[in-house]
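Quick illustration for those who missed Monday's session on complexes.
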Amino acid sequence: MFPARSMAACRTATGLARSFATVSNASAGRSHRIVVIGGGAAGLDISHKLLRSGKFAQDDIAVVDPATWHHFQPGWTLVGGGIKTKEELRRPLNSLIDPKFKFYNDSVAGFSPEQNSITLGNGDKVSYEQLVVAPGISVNYGSVKGLPEALADPKSLVSSIYSYDTCDKTFETIQKLHKGTAIFTQPAGPIKCAGAPQKILWLALDHWKRAGLYDPANPAGSPIQISFATGMPVMFGVAKYNATLEQLRKERGVEGLFQHDLVSIDGDKATFALPDGKASVTKRFDLLHVVPKMGPHAFVKGSALANEAGYVDVDDGTTRHKKYPNVWSAGDASSLPTSKTAAAITAQTPVLVRNLLGSLEGKTPDATYDGYASCPLITEYGKVLLAEFKYGGEPKETFGDWFGIDQAVPRKSFYYMKKHFFPWVYYQHMVKGTWGGPKGWIN
Ligand code: UQ1
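Prediction with ubiquinone-1 bound:
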């Protein structure tokens, strides 16, 4: 480990060598040129892209993540719809980490950006020349009173596709419901995959339609009634796709309860806060699909790296930290003002990696992220609307440009991409750093 440490110190090209002067022998093995926080989609993609640059030796790059399993979370909607099993979507995290990395299978207790170090959950200090912060965000089940208890109760028809533990319960609840009121919620505020709360609604609706329990032409006369209760003012944040989805909602007889933010569950009653902050509405339900509020992990939110909202405060274009030039962030934990999706990560990581590698050579960042994100929005079994857009909610359609097709029209080809191609390319290429999303394969 000593050679690694001295190499790291020698190679410091950014004027940040001061931290290494104080590194004690005991912690010498815990100095790395680059430390990547997070073994999720962003962390794995970035760390492997950095390694593929050929500029790093054994243990030059460290990855920190306390998890045992890595999950392909975009697949959990399909588990909720009974299309995939949750087991097929996960891999042991250590099997996805190149042996050339030092892997700290531990949590992060804190950041010391002035000292160029982090502290692990076990108390050890790890120092770096460059830090990449990509730990994702947390799903806050406690944000809805009564939710943890309702989810844990196997008899309740309350579930969520947002966790490994409960995404299969969702399909069980859909199958168990034969009559009554089904409510699907979406919270106010940022969440991972803002389309997923309604994707599961569309799958459930289609399931009940096929089972003869729901007739979109006569919702009031159907055994099941369906509501979408969302804390947001619209079905989807990008105007072009919102128009299609709002039309589908009306055509399919789904009640839209906008700016209804779920706050508590009590038996078969769900209570929603309304925008003025005073009034609330309580609805009875027979099936409830819940999307809890989400937000930055406490160790990020409470750190010197966070902006006011608790996200890692990086430049919207370069992904470089606004205050600490040797800190970078991408993915859900970053302040990048776009959707929190794996597709967005495919466009963020090449920018981050190019700018970080350039900065090691003293260059000014010259790559810029345009806010690209995508949402393959499943509208029924066998059909997907492929929303793709950039900053400002402006559509940026891959296949529209190639073939002149309108991606707001739900298609079978996009469904096959979502069901078969994306999960495959994710584990074969994206986590290894060789997938560029709409740009295809990159090295
Ligand atoms: C993508 O690259 C990707 O990652 C593997 C997804 O899976 C989560 C996606 O949903 C999307 C939309 C992309 C973007 C790629 C193309 C070709 C549109």
